[in-house]
Design goal:
Shape: globular
Radius of gyration: 16 Å
Strand content: 15-25%
Strand order of the largest sheet: 3-2-1-4-7-6-8
Order of helices and strands: EHEHEHEEHEHEHHEEHH
CATH class: Alpha Beta
Number of helices: 9
CATH architecture: Alpha-Beta Complex
Structural class: alpha/beta
Largest sheet: 7 strands, mixed
Number of domains: 1
Number of strands: 9
């Protein structure tokens, strides 16, 4: 079963290359697509230099639309979805995410940080369903209504689709993996506002997916 990694990225020039290199090193992944979601920095260049196939969106459309663009431009029957701001990604993490899907045990996996950093670990203990690290069958992902409108609510939309279709979902632990927090990227004030907007996207997606 062919695997395509789709990595949505917005202003992630500092971390995207190391994520791409880790994925390319995995023998399980055939294709790596980075969707540059209207970044204002050198995200696109960094991803391309690391070996990814890059899709440049002309303006920021949000995470859901970026994922949708990556899926449309790929052919993998299984999609590996990863955030571009990960720190510490290794081949073992990729195998943990993919193995249940490739082995026919699940239609989707959700990866949860552990033993990374206290705050990011705690956030995923509280809300594991919001993790962006996943492996998912193309058929399930393409069944998500309104993914292009979901922005940071893409995980909620995917979770609800899995519930409605009774898809098998497996949670896997991702030891020693973490990510750069918004407050670290932007400074506390701007990062906190960005986090509030993210929660707004999540609530909006939950509302659209109700019932």
């Amino acid at each position: 079963m062919r695997v395509t990694a789709v990595i949505p990225a917005y202003n992630e020039e500092r971390t995207v290359a190391q994520v791409v290199r880790a994925v390319i090193a995995s023998p399980l992944v055939a294709d790596v697509v980075v969707v540059n979601d209207g970044s204002r920095d050198a995200t696109s260049l960094a991803a391309a230099r690391a070996g990814a196939r890059v899709i440049d969106l002309p303006e920021n459309r949000g995470k859901g639309a970026a994922i949708q663009a990556g899926v449309a431009a790929s052919q993998g029957e299984t999609l590996l979805l990863l955030d571009a701001d990960l720190v510490g990604l290794e081949a073992d993490h990729i195998q943990r995410l993919l193995s249940p899907v490739l082995g026919g045990e699940a239609e989707m996996t959700i990866g949860v940080f552990e033993q990374g950093r206290t705050f990011t670990d705690l956030a995923q203990v509280i809300t594991p369903g919001l993790s962006g690290q996943r492996a998912v069958l193309r058929s399930l992902l393409q069944g998500v209504a309104g993914l292009d409108l979901a922005r940071f609510g893409s995980e909620v939309a995917l979770n609800r689709t899995a519930e409605r279709t009774r898809a098998r979902v497996v949670t896997v632990q991702l030891p020693r993996l973490t990510h750069v927090m918004k407050e670290e990227k932007m400074g506390f004030a701007r990062g906190f506002l960005a986090r509030l907007r993210m929660y707004g996207d999540i609530l909006a997606a939950a509302w659209r997916q109700r019932g």
